[in-house]
Every structure is written in structure tokens, then in C-alpha cells.
């Protein structure tokens, strides 16, 4: 998207390439430090949460800052992942009940904040969706394994496969050339890593289900 925006220099493409390079580098270093050093020190007993996994809950301010960072990190992801679900359900509702008062948008004014358009089905459906997903997330006692599974499943297609294929198509990389082979090797290697991580996360979820009863209200 940034490459298609026309603007005076420095262009958004140039700025975003620098920002992406810095953010990916910092994220990679942090993840490798937590994952590799944690496993080297504690092996398979390394906890999902390095801050509270050892039973220490002080200083409280540090844990609060860490939890706030997790919220800020996941809220954006939640929004991105939820939008296609919202759009699909609302599009099907509009096709099923065309012209109905349920799907007809109405302007809602919020005083000095301005106005926005909303429909009854959008308000009810999105509110219910957020409440249900929040309740399910609170009931699941294995946050680390679930997040690991989501990350493993989405890592290879979104971060490696599609960008590599887009680069090959854009640059016209010849099939079986050295660059093509290296790019495909990178994609295959990351696919193996993604599958391995997904398998480990699934095993973690299964073990957690054996020791926990997340949906037992009377337990």
C-alpha cells in the first residue's frame, strides 16, 4: 500500500521501510532473547510468562506495564482479525434482509464528538461478538499456547510465503535461478518452523486441557 501512495519526499514508502526494518529487528531480538535464553536456562520447564511464571508478582508496577503492553499489542491484532468476520456477517445479513430496519444505517450523534452511521444488527452483532470472545478468552487458562498456535499458523503464509511470492512476481525472478532457489529455500525453512511451532502449541493446549477444566463453572 505504501508503494502506491504518491506524495512529496520523503515518501511514505521510504519512511515505512525504515520503520518496518527497525521494528522487525527489535521484535526479532526480543523474541530470540525470551525464547532461546529461556529455553537454554530452564529447558521445557520455561514458563509462558517469564514475569509471573516463577511465582513472583513484585514489583507490581512492572507487571502492570507488561500487561498494558500485551493489551496494546493484541488490541490491534484483534481488530484486524475481527473485521473480515464483521464484514462477512453484515454482508450476508444485508443480502438476506434488504431494506430491513435491522440493516438500515442511521446517523448517531455523540455531542461534540460528531456523528457516525450504525445499524441495529451491526451494533448488536459486534457487541455480542466482543463479549463472547472476551468471555472465552478469560476462561482459557493457557494463554501462551493459544497465542503460540495463532502465531505459528499465521507466520508462514502472511510473513513469508505471500511476501516472497509477491517479490518474485514483482521483480521477475527467473525460476530455478540462484535468487529463486534461495527465496524458496527460505520459504520452505520457515514453513517447517511454523509447522513445528504449531505442533508444539497444540501439544501444550492438549496438556493444559488434561490439567484444567476451563469451561467448568462449578469447579
Structure description:
- The chain is mainly alpha-helical and 219 residues long.
- It has a domain at 141-210.
- It has five helices and two strands.
- It has a two-stranded antiparallel ribbon.
- A hairpin with a 5-residue loop joins strand 1 and strand 2.
- Helix 4 runs antiparallel to helix 5.
- The chain is globular.
- The mean pLDDT is 82.
Which labels suit this protein?
mainly alpha; two-stranded antiparallel ribbon; globular
Mean pLDDT: 82
User: Strands of the biggest beta sheet: in what spatial order?
Assistant: 1-2
Biggest sheet record:
2 strands, antiparallel
Large-scale geometry:
globular
Distance between the termini: 50 Å
Give a count of the beta strands, DSSP E runs of length 2 or more: 2
- As a percent range, the share of helical residues equals 55-70%
Low-confidence stretches: none
**Strand and helix order:** HHEEHHH
The fraction of residues assigned to DSSP E strands is under 5%
Helix-strand makeup class: mainly alpha
Radius of gyration: 23 Å
Instruction: Provide a count of the helices.
Output: 5
Keywords: Amino-acid transport, Membrane, Transmembrane, Transmembrane helix, Transport
Protein name: Amino acid transporter transmembrane domain-containing protein
Transmembrane segments: 21-40, 60-81, 129-156, 186-206
Subcellular location: Membrane
